[in-house]
Input
Amino acid sequence: MSGPKISVYNLTDVVMANIIEDIRRQEKIAVRRVQLLQTEKEYKEKLKVCGKKMKLLKQSVDESREWVTSDELQGNLQKLEILFSNIEHTLDGLPDISGNDVIESRLNKAATAMEELNYQLDVAGTQEAKLQDRLKKTLDDKIIELFNKKATDLHSLTNKDVLKQDEASPFTKKCLQELLNLRNNPYLPMTYQKDVDRALKRMKEANKLHQLKVFCEIELPDTLNKCQNFLSLWQEIGNEYQQLITRYEALCDMNKETERTTFVLSKEAIIKLKDLIAVEEQKAEEQAQKVYIQQALGEVMEDMGYSILGRRDMMKRNGKHFKNELYQYSDDTAINVTYDDCGQIAVELGKTSGDDRIPTDTECNYLENQMIAFCNHFKEVEQRLAEKGVVVDRRIALAPSSADYAQIINVNDYDLIQKPRKNESKVRQKAIKSQIMRYNDSGR
Output
């Protein structure tokens, strides 16, 4: 019974419970990592906003240089540029760092620096306002008018930027304030933010055409209602949605899943996310089970004196993936262990060689005797596996010792870890011969 052996193994309840506990621990670490890297993205977005403000401040300094001095503001801008550069350096490469503690430490450092950056930006803003006041006192009305024609950034709009004082009725002021509040809402997705920016642009155009009231009554309500409905839904299920998204991303990272489903906030998304999380958890458990079984079998083989010769990964044309591990058995034979993605494990014995060929008749008889010797050895392998909590779930095949199963194993097809040994110990050879003799004395 020592031809090819194909089996599916399972784990005892105790071992599986330990594995699941370890998966949950890994999941917590992965969830924390997703949260930290999300914070990193938020800091980078905030840094972009700060960069735009610094650019506008520098532009203000450049435009006023010929008329008034701005040494204080220029000195502060130099400090801001250093702070900005330091924060960029602190945030650089965080996704490539494996340890959560290191990422968190860097983020804490960035958070402190961001507070200082924002404070200095406020100081610079005050300095810039004073600079503008001095500039107004220096320039005549015509130059003031020229400077006021400078394009206004959507992201620095105020009521005065959009509305002329004589047309800013309480109704239109209220509409504008609602838009500005929505634009600064951190929970509103980018697609909605773009809708808000478009509405602000349209409001400014309508104001120039003296159609502001019509715009606020007819066009604007759709955008406002759309955004407010989203925010209402966020208030109802946003926290659960965010937790599920984070957990789903963490499990995908654990499973090295590159194809991921994206979701827009909705009650249906909550249901789908829970289903996908269950699928990814099952994947994680199955993968951990396979890893444990493969490691256990490898340990047993090594403990029994079968040193690893080489490994290889194979992908067949039909897409099936296999992993092979080759162990030394005797001087010129090896045990080939094949793992497939379905959990099947095949154990076969063959004669080692440096080329692809079929065995000779003499080699077939020799290999049959080697299979006989390996028969009881394989029983011991499974006994030792059982001690590690790995038990047979079902047999696919358990072929008898026969020259029909004789095969030559080309070691050059493997990524060799060591060269096949040619001077196997006398103890091993004696044990193999003893197994063959006992088998023959039993009358086969």
